[in-house]
Design a protein that fits this description.
Order of helices and strands: HHHHEHEHEHEHEHEHEHEHH
GO molecular function, one term: nucleotide binding
Catalytic activity: L-proline + a quinone = (S)-1-pyrroline-5-carboxylate + a quinol + H(+)
Strand order of the largest sheet: 1-2-3-4-5-6-7-8
CATH class: Alpha Beta
Structural class: alpha/beta
CATH architecture: Alpha-Beta Barrel
Largest sheet: 8 strands, parallel, barrel
Strand content: 5-15%
Number of strands: 8
CATH topology: TIM Barrel
Distance between the termini: 25 Å
Helix content: 40-55%
Number of domains: 1
Binding site for FAD: 135, 163, 187-189, 201, 226-227
Cofactor: FAD
Radius of gyration: 18 Å
EC number: 1.5.5.2
Number of helices: 13
């Protein structure tokens, strides 16, 4: 029952101020966030790459209200692409973007987001890497997938995220399972109404498996975004059943969660990519991580109790 409360709190400015001001918050946030500055995140990238892990980097920020903020997001990602190119890390690192941070929710937002994200995708290609479009709440899906189609005309390696808890996602998976398409499948981390999304965890899990079957049977490149041991095992079985080699799909997990499992999958020869968020606007991301898993919330509460 706490999950919906935390997801609502993720968009509350008043709760944001309380959480950000709590002395215990910073050490806990550091478990899930690679740092507030680009240099800190690049140190984490190099460390993980040395252990055989790949990464995807997310400069935190969403739900902006000013076109100038969208330009700052664009510039932050251009700086990131430049750092990856300079340090030769493009082969190990890609970039994830939330189109709301590029102006998608502003007036004329679809065109604005496309205009702002295009130079980032261009810079990623020059750095030898690519971009994946994160999926946000259900009202953004059509716009996000339309922008994906436009970007893939020039940059077919551009990826997208789909969320199994949305009723529409099986159809989206069919549409995205073609040759060259890169799709990250996750369960979903936004508070959605019962009219568009499964509310029961078991139904979300069943939908995840149905979507994964579609992607694994297709001609694209599935990215299994899950910490659930059952989904990892099912992903391995479906890959085997569809004749996929380790280079034909990958697992993805969040920075700071199930690190031993990440290393286990690497040791077994799988591609394992770690989602690394960084930046000062960490609050919304942090609250969704608490909402997703009781273990995350328990970790935070234990820290609060210890500090008390």
């Amino acid at each position: 029952m706490l999950g919906p409360v935390l997801l609502a709190a993720a968009r509350s400015d008043s709760i944001r101020r309380i959480v950000a001001a709590a002395p215990v918050t910073r050490p806990v946030v550091d478990r899930f966030i690679a740092g507030e500055r680009l240099a800190e995140s690049m140190t984490v990238v190099r460390s993980l790459a040395a252990r055989g892990l790949e990464v995807t980097l997310d400069h935190l920020g969403e739900d902006i209200t000013d076109p100038a903020e969208a330009l700052r997001t664009r510039d932050a990602y251009l700086q990131l692409a430049g750092a990856l190119k300079e340090q030769g890390l493009g082969v190990k690192a890609e970039m994830s973007v939330k189109l709301s941070a590029f102006g998608q929710a502003l007036p004329g937002g679809h065109e604005l987001a496309l205009k702002n994200v295009t130079p980032v995708v261009e810079a990623a290609a020059e750095a030898g890497t690519t971009v994946t479009l994160d999926m946000e709440d259900h009202t953004t899906v059509d716009s996000t997938l339309a922008i994906l189609r436009e970007l893939r005309e020039r940059f077919p390696q551009t990826g997208a995220v789909v969320q199994s808890y949305l009723f529409r996602t099986e159809d989206d998976c069919h549409a995205l399972a073609g040759e060259g398409s890169r799709v990250r499948l996750v369960k979903g981390a936004y508070k959605e109404p019962a009219t568009v999304a499964y509310q029961d965890k078991q139904e979300v899990d069943k939908a995840y498996v149905r979507c994964l079957k579609i992607l694994m049977a297709g001609q694209g490149y599935p990215m299994i975004g899950s910490h659930d041991p059952r989904m990892v095992a099912i992903g391995q079985e479906l890959a085997h059943r569809n004749g996929r080699k380790p280079a034909d799909f990958e697992f993805q997990m969040l920075y700071g969660i199930r690190e031993a499992e990440q290393q286990r999958l690497v040791a077994e020869g799988h591609r394992m990519r770690v989602y690394i968020p960084y930046g000062t606007d960490w609050y919304g991301y942090f609250m969704r991580r608490l909402a997703e898993r009781p273990a995350n919330l328990a970790f935070f509460l234990r820290a609060l109790a210890t500090r008390g």
